[in-house]
Amino acid sequence: MKLLWLAVTILLFSSNSHADEVSGAISLDKQMQQDQTSNSTIEPSIAEIEHLYAAKKFAELKPLLVRLHAQTPTHLAVYFLSGMLAAQEGDYPKAIDEFRAMLTRDPSLIRPRLELASALQKNGDRQSAKYHYEQVLSANLPNEVRSNIYQRLSDIRERLPSVQFSLDIVSDSNPKQATNNRVIMIGGLPYTLNDSSKAKTVYGTAMSADVHWPLASDPTWFAHAYGEINEYPRKDLDSMYGQATLGKRFDWGQNNISTEIGGHVSSYQNHKQYDGWQVRGTGFIRASPKLGVTSDLSYKTYNYDNLPYLNGDMKSINLTGIYVPQATQRLEIGAGFSHYSAQEQAYSYNQPLVSARFMQEWQGGWLTGMRLQALMVDYAAPDPFFGEKRRDAEKRVEFDVLNRKLKFWSFSPKLLLGYVERNSNLELYSYKRMYARIGVSMQF
Prior knowledge:
Layout lengths: L1 H12 L30 H11 L3 H12 L6 H13 L3 H14 L5 H12 L3 H11 L6 H17 L2 E11 L10 E4 L2 E4 L9 E13 L6 E11 L7 E14 L2 E14 L2 E18 L2 E12 L9 E12 L5 E14 L6 E13 L4 E17 L6 E15 L8 E13 L6 E11 L3
Antiparallel strand pairs: 1-4, 1-16, 2-3, 4-5, 5-6, 6-7, 7-8, 8-9, 9-10, 10-11, 11-12, 12-13, 13-14, 14-15, 15-16
Helix pairs in contact: 2-3, 2-4, 3-4, 4-5, 5-6, 6-7, 7-8
């Protein structure tokens, strides 16, 4: 029921408000001007539909497009003009399908990607539109077009609601992070763990949603909410997390800073785990059309009702560089540092981390990504059970794949595979974990 309730809520939050179309002309990509057969000349029928579209004779154009659409393979110009006509008539879902069909055949095309971003934005899928606008910026664009893309990105960030949503079936080999050691040392003596302490594979469902909602009276003010739910058959691993903030954005050019204040709450096994306040500051600097830098500075308090020795606060800072070398590639490199100060020093720690993510689009509508992350955790005082300071090192690898040709409404199926290995000087906290998630995502 919790998953169903959140799904309904997200659908109600999704908006279909329209933005002004990106203006300015980009010459058609060279591939779109070439005949797809061995004949290098453009077929008369293709030249005819281009003429009819330019002359705005849409009543004559429509039946000709339908006939040409049935040909195999369909000419790229047919996809493009069908998409342009659909967008002009307000049929944005059809326009999205046409432009995506072009990118499925050749993801390096620039003009169709720009029109796809515009249609996605007008259809309410603003996060996907943002992705494609940013990819288009990697191309050599006329100044007018680049300026208009910056304006569309500003509208998405500041003035228009956005929703990110995912629903997955999860397989996890070690959700409790049980140690991979059969025998551990405590006080210099060996202890053998029983079967209940071993890692066990479980299956469940996971849902997450992120909503950014600018206020109508002044869109520089916004509400921000994030929630995630994990459910498993025996309920002993069920968890929920939610946070809600009110924020203010300050812009100058293509750069911006946002401040937020609000609260967060977590539950585990259907019981509240902790709650607290949070203050957050985020920023974005566009260093060049291909490079942007994001920053995230946060302060959170944690109040545990049943574990008061864990009460404390966390300060975090994270920086991420986003580099788009070309329209089909994206590289994100990040670094961060967190400090948790607990009521008992044994549970206070410092945590530096580094991460990298690379994404690549391929023919056929495929999009693949790989993410690497490494972090260290250094505790401030000896563990009360082992009498020794705990030091952990963790590495994580994730691979994901998505195909834009497969979709249900605004959702595309996505597969994610991950592996985590944590090594600790206290053997009880060392573990290995593999997980897989398959589900649907409002992405790209």
